[in-house]
Amino acid sequence: MRIHAVRTGFVQIKRSQQLGVGHGLARRVRPFLDPTWTEWLPTLAWVIEHPEGVIVVDTGSASGDAHLRSWHPYHRFDVRFQVGPQDELGPHLRALGIEARDVANVVLTHLHMDHGAGLPHLAGRPTLVHEGELRAAHGLAGRLQGYLPGQWGPAFRPHALTWTDARFGPFDRTAPITQAGDVLAIPTPGHTPHHVSVVVRGDVDILLAGDASYTQDALLTGQVDGVSPDEGQARATLARIRVLAHERPLVYLPTHDPDSAARLLGKTVVPQ
Ligand SMILES: [Zn+2]
């Protein structure tokens, strides 16, 4: 099994989104008042070459994101993208010799725009999403939260992840992605209430963490971001991932961590 980190361009967010400041409503308002931007952060997608077929975890950004015209204050004031057509998922898959039809499953950690914008490159492929995330993203409530269903394309075929009581470390529910059971989703709520991460089992386990935190440092310090609706839930998830990393060697790979790609190559585990 090979895992590729695919960089679908870069994103800048406010520092106080990357690492939340304060608590309660103040934490969530802060990014709008914060004049300081992060450096350009990668937006990664993951391609797993598995004997049962290719699995793509998150689909990254699309070049349209850079010119998005949106009324939503988050899109207008709090995020900037640098994405060209060649940065999108499709060209990366072609460079790896992978056709859309080779993709057995797409798994989305959540439906924020920089995770789902590459979906049109995998039109019609079965796409696994947490049922609650699908519900949250639709309708007016979804739009108010900044979800952009229009970008997923008309051939978006979402299927709800199927949860089982099979445990994985401190996680009491898992959703198998492969028959072999060596790729599975775990619930990592916080950044969104139904956010999931994907585990690839191996000599060391790889955790494709989506936005469970923006960096490994934030995992280690237990610092919640500036957008998670429920700070306690997000903090509990980070604590659970740290327990997991204590039980077994674990490589932790957030979507926007500048060091994720290098940690994947070096199989660099979470330090204890
Ligand atoms: Zn997100």
Automatic annotation (TrEMBL):
InterPro entries, per the entry: MBL_superfamily_lactonases, Metallo-B-lactamas, RibonucZ/Hydroxyglut_hydro
Transmembrane feature ranges: none
GO molecular function: hydrolase activity; metal ion binding
Pfam families associated with the record: Lactamase_B (PF00753)
Keywords: Hydrolase, Metal-binding, Zinc
Positions in coiled-coil regions: none
Cofactor (UniProt): Zn(2+)
Domain Metallo-beta-lactamase per the UniProt entry, residue ranges: 42-256
SUPFAM superfamilies: Metallo-hydrolase/oxidoreductase
Domain of life of the source: Bacteria
Family: Belongs to the metallo-beta-lactamase superfamily.
The name this protein goes by in its record: Glyoxylase-like metal-dependent hydrolase (Beta-lactamase superfamily II)
Naturally occurring in which organism (per UniProt): Deinococcus metalli
Source species taxonomy: Bacteria, Thermotogati, Deinococcota, Deinococci, Deinococcales
